[in-house]
């Protein structure tokens, strides 16, 4: 087997001098590159986190081995072409099965990246910043230092923003240099050309009619102001091929010609089985096996880490590695036949994704060939709206807030998560829920009066402080339709992921428990209703033939009808977090604020 060399493409692409070969990153399928060898650090998973950390550590001179279960798929247009991928594609995708509380298989699969680059090789590429309030909240859960002020410099460092041109600006692309990085690793830009400008104009007009107070335009990453805007992506326009290209973590941190590392080795198509522990439960290395293997015990190899082992196999795969290693909830380890080293019941708990679905309006025949309305291009969601509680329920937000903010409600929600195996104890569940509820309820839209001294006189201006949004609303066009996809952004529901056997090639059992919490269900139904109202609004009058095309539930449909449809059609929005929660151990945390 001839190992791939990451400089190969750099050499051909940029015709760099031969001197570059001396320091190339090694990317290979060859088991022998790692078996029995020692590195400073070993990283499980070459996705977003693993490649970033591997790049930084090897850049500081440490020897690093990254073991990745999937292959190199960077040559595949479904990966590198930003518009080359179809929904539901199996390329570079684990398609994990998902289960209900009752153990029954759910009708949808979980998308998750399964090649070098991880999920950044297949994701929607949507790029915008979080709010300060959300990042600061992480710190309040017992994680000193994890706040906006400390993290914002890394957002700047990661990004190389390519500003829109005059045509894109004229078609609604808003860009503010202050909320972007300009010298980083990952390209961000608007697509060339922009998608469905005619429909986007209509969306920009209609959305504030349905969500009163929604500010439209500007830059989506400006989270102190704008809340509906044209979408920026982790892409760049390649003038040679005339195509938009994905800028994945692999492109930025592994293949980039100026990021080659003699001390970084990526072993592809190999699965990390366990972390090996020495005295005092110190990680000393990992065991691993070829991804095409079938009987693990006969084909397992070991590699050793002098300084540390880092698990970055994604939120659904890192917890299973810990469990196979003997770290986890005793009952899970016992039934999988694993010897227990550490009793850590938070492993695999607190799993969380956003429950998504979409509603379609039929476009009238006269507009079905109008490519400014329907373009059959696959860069998802050209206009994104971030809806807060006041915009979702202009008249009744207050009663929902009273409900979710009550101490009694918090206790029973927390107890429900413990009962479902989604949280370790009522204190931990309460802390996590309370943090989310605080974000939803106290960071509301406010008018704050500020007085500026101007030329000796005084001028009053109103400053709108944006709330943390609770719905992400993505505006699209389909075949003969316009449609909206949407999901609650701060769900209170939680699920769990655990191994069912000691075999590292078996899928874990993932129980998402989407939409179990009644507040999530209420948000979901309100978003679904609002999506119909958008297509029934005046701006769409000419071009929409049927605003209630799919699902065929009309304006008088009951909440129960909408909810039943939502549950039937829903899928995970692919934004999984949790399972190895960073939180103090007494609350059910798995790692501390130093990720140990
Ligand atoms: C379909 C989809 C759409 C998305 N859209 C967006 C979007 O538009 N914008 C956005 O910001 N985010 C989006 N995301 C989310 C984003 O891509 C992820 O949050 C991010 O990639 C997670 O990084 P990670 O390092 O935790 O995991 P990943 O990037 O998934 O990497 C984990 C890696 O570990 C490997 N692995 C798993 N198990 C093992 C094992 N036992 N041994 C060795 N390797 C293993 C996997 O193959 C994978 O390569 C999307 C995700 C998906 C799946
Ligand atoms: C590595 O393995 C993958 C998947 O089996 C294969 O497609 C690829 O060609 C291999 N690469 C090398 C250099 O052997
Ligand atoms: C499995 O992968 C290993 C290492 O990449 C390779 O040597 C072997 O030929 C593969 N076996 C099969 C059956 O594909
Ligand atoms: C965010 O948008 C508001 C309103 O348009 C503007 O006043 C402010 O300067 C913007 N902030 C940044 C950093 O661009
Ligand atoms: C970023 O874009 C430039 C062109 O502007 C391109 O040469 C480079 O390869 C891209 N890098 C990544 C990581 O996508
Ligand atoms: C749209 O295009 C199709 C296929 O080219 C054609 O049959 C149809 O008549 C066109 N419709 C309109 C309204 O132009
Ligand atoms: C849409 O694009 C896909 C993929 O490029 C193509 O197969 C399909 O025929 C196109 N559909 C229409 C209606 O143009
Ligand atoms: C809930 O969060 C608020 C705001 O951070 C905090 O003041 C309060 O103590 C928390 N309550 C519980 C029960 O954790
Ligand atoms: C879990 O393991 C048991 C025992 O081996 C098996 O019967 C069951 O089918 C497994 N469940 C799943 C969902 O794989
Ligand atoms: C919905 O209800 C209103 C008021 O009862 C009624 O006027 C209207 O016709 C109904 N619409 C549909 C589509 O059933």
Automatic annotation (TrEMBL):
GO terms for molecular function: flavin adenine dinucleotide binding; oxidoreductase activity, acting on CH-OH group of donors. Its cofactor is FAD. Residues 40-355 form the Glucose-methanol-choline oxidoreductase N-terminal domain. SUPFAM superfamilies: FAD-linked reductases, C-terminal domain, FAD/NAD(P)-binding domain. It comes from the Eukaryota. Residues 1-24 form the signal peptide. Residues 491-596 form the Glucose-methanol-choline oxidoreductase C-terminal domain. FAD binds at residues 123-126, 272. Keywords: FAD, Flavoprotein, Oxidoreductase, Signal. PANTHER family: GLUCOSE-METHANOL-CHOLINE GMC OXIDOREDUCTASE (PTHR11552), GLUCOSE-METHANOL-CHOLINE OXIDOREDUCTASE N-TERMINAL DOMAIN-CONTAINING PROTEIN (PTHR11552:SF201). Belongs to the GMC oxidoreductase family. This is GMC oxidoreductase. It comes from Lasiosphaeria hispida.
